[in-house]
Every structure is written in structure tokens, then in C-alpha cells.
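Late entry, written up from scratch paper. The run itself happened at the end of the previous shift, but nothing got recorded in the book at the time, so transcribing now.
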Amino acid sequence: MHDDDRSLRERLRGADPARDLAPLPPTWLDHRMEQIMTDTTTPAVPARTARRTWIPVAGVAAALAIGAAIAVPLMLGGTATVEPLALPEGGGLASGSCLPVSAETLQAQEQAFAARVLSVEGDLVTFEVTDRFAGEVADRVTVPQVDELTSDFSLVPFAVGDSYLVTATDGVVTGCGLSGADTAELRAVYDEAFAG
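Output as recorded:
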């Protein structure tokens, strides 16, 4: 037995709440196991007395709320607003390097939002904005698709159905890691920058 095993066993014994009790005799354990195995009665399960009628009611209420959220803007003639953004010239690396991605760098951007790609038609990507962090952002945003051949890799091509975190200044998407796939790491920086 290794020293680690001994140490672990000692810790387990120290945490055992029944460590001070005497062990049960083997005959008692045999008798109890036989009794458990031969007992054919099953304990009665008490009938449910309280009915959960609120669950279907809550489901219907949620469905009505979702329906109203969709129907009311349509009935009032509301249509989704669309805002075009451009990609940075030369990938956005005019200086040849990027600033570190930080909450302060994100806060300096005019617009910041989370979005899901609705469509990619030719070279045009359409985002549906799901969350706004900074600035006025339309319901939908269009940007040119990133060209993998000429890109500096500070932005990646957008894929339908994927979610992204995007920043922009002067109508131009910011690269250098400030805009990208909605990953846990990038989301944490956005949450730090735009908390509350």
C-alpha cells in the first residue's frame, strides 16, 4: 500500500461519523441480508394528495406571453430595423498588432452586441441581435462576409446559426479579438465590461 493510500484511508476514517461504534457481528449481517432478500412485501406508496394544477396554467400563460410578444409588433406594423456595418480595411491591423482584449478596450467601442447569424447570402451576412451592451443597435445587422484568403485572421468567417459577440466604432466592426464567436472566455470579458 502506498503512502498516498494510507493517508487517504486515514482521512476517510477521520470523516466517518460511525468510527467510534463497534462493528456489527457477521451473524447479524447475514441474518439481516437474508431477511431483506426473502421479504416479499412492498411498502405502500402514499397517494399524491396535492395536484399541481399551476403547471399547465403557467405553460398556457407563457405561450400567450410569447404569442403576444410576436403578434403585437406585427399588428402595429413594426418591422425589424436593419443596420449595415462594414469590415475594417485590411482586417483592422493598421498598426500591425492588436491591443489586448480587455473590459476597458470593449468599453471604448461605440456599439457592442450579441447576435446570431440568420443568413449568409453571397458575401452578405445578416445577424439577428439578441442582446445589446452598448450604443444604439438595430434589430438586425448586416456585414460583409470575412474573406479567408485576404483576412488577417483577427475576424473569422461567420456561419449560419452560430452566435457572435460584436463591437463596432464609426460603423466598422472591430477585429483583433474584440468581435468573435460567443465563447465563455469572450463572454466573460463582455460581462465584465458591460455589467449592470
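The longest strand covers residues 111-121.
(Scratch paper discarded after transcription.)
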